[in-house]
């Protein structure tokens, strides 16, 4: 393939041009996608709770190491990061990632299909995109990078390259078309990652998490990273990359807008204020879901920037993984709050809060670039990515919602305690009333019993007195005494014989 010559004055460095650029010499476009394992279709609430527990415990990396070591296609990303750092240092470059990042935040590389189903065609590495779309002449399917993050996020980056000079309008059109193909590739890869024969599925099922079928398209996070060798103006001169930051061409390339010539100056100035490149011959710009890097050194195999391209992608992939995780956590916190209002699920909500707090603590550590990143420029890149995606605001939103769940559970517990206390007090009052009633009744019954006893005693006394004054009974008794005396009955009177007559006389006198 022939390249458009870079026209300028004699010498190695063509004169910079301040005119509006119209063409691009070489370009590589990387599309990065990420989705949380919990954001697949078919994942149950119980499975999400199990995944949250694994994340809270921070054991996913150890699970990967135990189950994936030696499995074809899987490998710790840390090995590649360390190898690239050593090579960069040997070429007078710098190591980018700290040991803390390598040990705690590096992902695991995952296998990917040898080809992707694109309808009637199969797309393979280094395949010509023109076979899928006639308008993509000169574009080639370049590379693919698949990862599984320590937080359980599936990440995939696919790239396409164009080594021929291309008109800016054609470039914008092609980049839109290429994204559709990249998304199809991600969907296939994401589904394969949790397929029936996937070791990832087996690992997670042992921990209580059952994978879904395919990702929910609304939950997929994405980012586009564009590397450009140079841009030329109408005269063919190479434009000064740094001076391109406020041009309509750059605005169009960032937004893939065909109507880019009509961008007004105020917007272009706001866009230009986000540029953070150090050198006059380079441009680094992040805006929303796009990163643009213009630097000829990316195409020089002996230049440390050739390796630094991989570090830029590493930063983007890391950011997309965090973004997907936090979006999933936001959804989880919303659902947790909606179920925390019922007493039956309050204990589940308490467990959910505990897990979320542990995960959020890890997320804050993941944003501590002073610890994770050695390279100052890369820290600036990551902060620009965070600012454009508002990842800090998302993190704060998740934290606020989790605290709302905690407050809701606490309030519900207080209300339940108050109700229980009121119920117990009511129960105690009822018992006291019953005791008082029983006491009164017992006293009344006792009093009645006492009155009855007294009445009975009084009646008995009266009956005894009446008997003692009965004349018939006295006459009969006297007659009996007389009869006994006359008959000499000694059994009736236990008296000595000498006294009987005196007694009988007394009786006769009576």
Which key terms come to mind for this protein?
54% helix; elongated; 13 strands; three-stranded antiparallel sheet; single chain; disordered N terminus; alpha+beta; eight-stranded mixed sheet; 510 residues
Structural overview:
- The protein is α+β, with helices and mostly antiparallel strands and 510 residues long.
- It is 54% helix and 13% strand.
- It has an eight-stranded mixed sheet, sandwiched between helices.
- A hairpin with a 2-residue loop joins strand 5 and strand 6 (121-124).
- Helix 9 (304-339) runs antiparallel to helix 10 and helix 9 (304-339) packs parallel to helix 13.
- The longest helix has 78 residues, at 391-468.
- It is elongated, with a radius of gyration of 49 Å.
**Total helix count?**
15
Shape: elongated
**Structural class estimated from helices and strands:** alpha+beta
Strand line-up of the largest beta sheet:
3-4-7-8-2-10-13-12
Query: Kindly state the mean pLDDT as a whole number?
Result: 84
Q: Biggest β-sheet, characterized? A: 8 strands, mixed
How far apart lie the N and C ends?
168 Å
Can you tell me the residue ranges where pLDDT is under 50 for at least 5 consecutive residues? 1-16, 472-479, 481-486, 489-495, 500-510
Q: In percent, how much strand structure appears in the residues?
A: 5-15%
Number of strands: 13
Helix fraction, binned, reads 40-55%
Q: Mind telling me the C-alpha Rg?
A: 49 Å
Secondary-structure element pattern, one letter each: EEHHEHHEEEEEEHHEEHHEEHHHHHHH
């Amino acid at each position: 393939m022939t390249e458009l010559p870079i026209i300028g004055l004699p010498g190695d460095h063509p004169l910079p041009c301040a005119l509006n650029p119209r063409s691009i010499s070489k370009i590589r476009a990387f599309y990065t996608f990420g989705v949380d394992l919990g954001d697949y279709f078919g994942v149950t609430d119980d499975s999400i709770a199990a995944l949250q527990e694994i994340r809270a415990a921070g054991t996913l990396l150890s699970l990967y190491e135990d189950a994936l070591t030696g499995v074809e296609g899987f490998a710790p990303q840390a090995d590649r990061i360390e190898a690239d750092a050593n090579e960069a240092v040997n070429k007078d470059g710098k190591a980018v990632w700290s040991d803390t990042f390598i040990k705690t935040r590096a992902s695991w590389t995952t296998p990917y299909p040898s080809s992707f189903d694109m309808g009637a065609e199969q797309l393979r590495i280094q395949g010509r995109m023109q076979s899928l779309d006639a308008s993509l002449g000169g574009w080639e399917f370049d590379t693919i990078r698949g990862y599984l993050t320590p937080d359980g996020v599936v990440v995939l980056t696919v790239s396409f390259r164009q080594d021929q000079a291309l008109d800016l309008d054609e470039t914008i059109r092609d980049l839109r078309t290429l994204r559709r193909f990249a998304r199809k590739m991600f969907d296939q890869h994401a589904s394969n990652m949790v397929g029936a024969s996937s070791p990832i599925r087996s690992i997670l099922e042992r921990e209580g998490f059952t994978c879904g079928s395919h990702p929910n398209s609304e939950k997929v996070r994405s980012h586009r990273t564009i590397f450009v060798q140079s841009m030329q103006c109408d005269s063919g001169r190479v434009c000064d990359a740094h001076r391109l930051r406020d041009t309509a061409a750059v605005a169009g390339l960032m937004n893939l807008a065909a109507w880019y010539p009509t961008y007004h100056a105020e917007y272009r100035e706001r866009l230009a204020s986000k540029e953070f490149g150090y050198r006059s011959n380079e441009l680094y710009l992040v805006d929303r879901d796009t990163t643009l890097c213009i630097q000829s050194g990316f195409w020089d195999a002996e230049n440390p920037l050739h390796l630094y391209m991989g570090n830029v992608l590493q930063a983007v992939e890391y950011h997309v993984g965090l973004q997907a995780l936090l979006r999933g956590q936001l959804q989880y916190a919303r659902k947790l709050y909606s179920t925390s209002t019922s007493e039956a699920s309050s204990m589940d909500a308490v467990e959910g809060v505990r897990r979320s707090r542990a995960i959020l603590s890890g997320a804050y550590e993941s944003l501590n670039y002073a610890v994770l990143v050695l390279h100052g420029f890369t820290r600036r890149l990551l902060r620009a990515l965070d600012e454009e995606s508002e990842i800090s605001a998302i993190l704060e939103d998740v934290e606020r919602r989790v605290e709302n769940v905690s407050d809701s559970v606490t309030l519900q517990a207080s209300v339940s305690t108050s109700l229980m206390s009121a119920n117990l007090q009511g129960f105690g009052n009822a018992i006291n009333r019953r005791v008082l009633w029983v006491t009164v009744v017992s006293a009344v019954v006792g009093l009645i019993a006492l009155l009855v006893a007294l009445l009975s005693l009084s009646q008995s006394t009266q009956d005894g007195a009446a008997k003692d004054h009965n004349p018939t009974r006295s006459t009969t008794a006297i007659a009996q005494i007389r009869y006994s005396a006359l008959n000499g009955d000694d059994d009736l009177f236990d008296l000595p014989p000498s006294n009987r007559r005196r007694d009988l006389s007394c009786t006769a006198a009576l």
